[in-house]
Amino acid sequence: MIASDLDGTLLRGDGSLSPRTLRALRTAEEAGAEIVIVTARPPRFVDRLAEATGLVGTAVCSNGALVYDIASRSVVSSQMLSLSVARQVATALAAAVPGVGFALETGNQVFYEPAYRLRLSEDEGAELPVASLAELWLTEAPVTKLLAWTEQLDADTLLAAARPGAGDTVQLTHSGGRGLLEISAPGVTKAGALAMLCAERGIEAADVIAFGDMPNDLTVLAWAGTGYAMANAHPSVLAAVETHARTNEEDGVAQVIEHLFAVRGRG
Length: 267
Fold this sequence. Notes:
This protein is of the alpha/beta class. The chain has an 8-stranded mixed sheet with strand order 5-4-3-2-1-12-13-14. Strands 8-7-6-9-11-10 form a 6-stranded mixed sheet, with helices on one face. It is about 35% helix and about 20% strand. It has 2 domains: about 150 residues, Rossmann fold (3-Layer(aba) Sandwich); about 100 residues, Hypothetical Protein, Haloacid Dehalogenase-like Hydrolase, Chain: A, domain 2 (2-Layer Sandwich). It is globular and about 55 Å long. This is Cof-type HAD-IIB family hydrolase. It comes from Streptomyces drozdowiczii.
């Protein structure tokens, strides 16, 4: 199995999947490897990528909260965040970081309160405002992640500020977003979801090759038999993972796959 993150890893900086990388993935599939996308992104983003590239198979979405079948556009399994726990963590974080804003990610939509001013072009049409923070907790849709954002702090500093108040009630991480913290149900990680998927298929961790670039990838890079940190990865990832691949702009994932399957890449 080849398990790869998307942004900063499989995709180039403009969000595209290069022809070389797409060819490499298809070569691996033809040789019998299963390709699994392992991303912080929600299913709606994976759907758009699949439409543009023809990718099929399975995606671990929302940092492990959802396992998603790309072809049928259906959630295979889920680990949702309790709304009461999300509210508890948000209250503690708001006290530690004045001015922080919050949003709830459901996989299909993002509900956000006024202080959450981060807008992503790829989420246009999926973002739904609520009038106040109090109204955010009235959301009825199942929640995959609580998002916390501030323009005052970088993601690493926000993560450190959140840890004392969160305790073990949630899983905290970030994927390099601008001052953006991602909060999931306790124990939800990319590695956990991928491990369950592999167990169902009879695949050992030793037979998994993983690629990633951000702190939310650390669990899967450590769990897989072989983990590659991209050369453009977050410093903590480069320090924790011994084996490195070329940058995403250089099609680093493709280069590794070409080497493993003894094929020659073309730009």
